Amino acid sequence: FVHFPDADLAGHDSGWVVPGARSATGGDVLSPGYLAAAARVDSAIGRIADALAPGLDSGTVALVVTADHGGGHGEGCVADV
Fold first, then answer.
1. What are phi and psi of 79, to 5 degrees?
2. Any idea what the Cα angle at residue 18 is, between residues 15 and 20, rounded to 5°?
3. Which of 15, 17, 37, 66 is a plausible cystine mate for 78, CB 3.0–4.6 Å?
4. Tens of pLDDT along 32-73?
């Protein structure tokens, strides 16, 4: 079991989305702090998968990834709000 709280903590600290900002497709714009944390976690999961590759390839190892990163904006989603 490996736990990476980075993305959830970043979301609570700096917000998951930039309030009022919209992407070119009309969706929410993710905050820079959240994106950086998600990239760090993604990279770490990639390194774990690489290390487990022989077992994953042979079917003797399983890698299960779940996420609890919340999301949204508003009261309670950004520290000091």
1. -60, 150
2. 130
3. 15
4. 998 999 999 999 999 999 999 999 999 999 999 988 765 555
- What is the C-alpha to C-alpha distance for residues 67 and 69, in angstroms, rounded to an integer? 6
**Which amino acid does the sequence have at 26?**
G
> Among 60, 2, 39, 70, which residue's Cα sits nearest to residue 52?
60
Reading the block at residue 40, the tokens are 């760090």
**Identity of the residue numbered 11:** G
Spatial separation of the C-alpha atoms in residues 58 and 42, rounded to whole Å: 23
Considering only CA atoms, which of 20, 31, 25 is closest in space to residue 71? 31
pLDDT of 75 reads: 55
Distance between CA atoms of 2 and 29, rounded to whole angstroms?
A: 28
